[in-house]
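Collaboration report, partner site 2.

Our partner group contributed sequences for two proteins of shared interest, and the home lab folded both. The records are reproduced in the order in which they were received, starting with the first partner submission.
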Amino acid sequence: MSTPKVLTVELEFEMGDRKIHGPRIKAAYDAAVAAAIEAAKKELLEGSISTVRHSMTWGYRWVQTGSVVDVDEATWDEVDADES
């Protein structure tokens, strides 16, 4: 039995301050899904797509922050030594 292959495509639409209501969001989502399926069917071999799973989240991103944390490798070595 062959291992299933999975192609994951993630799109994120960041929108402006205009009022955008649920029906328009749903319509944009449906259009994006339909376009992605149609493009994949065009590029992949016929019959190669067995299932398409899609989901949508909708929310507000008030502030987005992030940072990079350097992890001291000696700390990990000490933990490994304690577990031995």
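Second partner submission, folded after the first:
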Amino acid sequence: MTHIKISLAAAFVVGICAGPVAAQDSSCPRAGADAPLALHADWIMKGWERNEGDGKFVFAQKLNRYYDLENTKGVFYDNFAPGSTQLFDNSARYGANWEAL
């Protein structure tokens, strides 16, 4: 009887844990444009990339997919940020900081 109780308890624990793990696994694409590697490449290589002759850099146009510019509260630290500070608490101010370059 003890063996059955232990088996049932183990099955119960596995069942409780398996649901969130399975749901979490399916929500993050492993390939394609929305996979983490592709998003990172797009954020760095297209969002921040600037070439000679490019038009004016407008943060909200190039990086709005990666920064919430409507609910701007947050912590944005960037040790490469130009100006007198590298720490911002507003995504719109953080973005505007880069536009003058």
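Feedback sent to the partner group on the second submission included the following. Helices lie at 2-27, 36-47, 59-63, 91-99. The chain has four helices and two strands.
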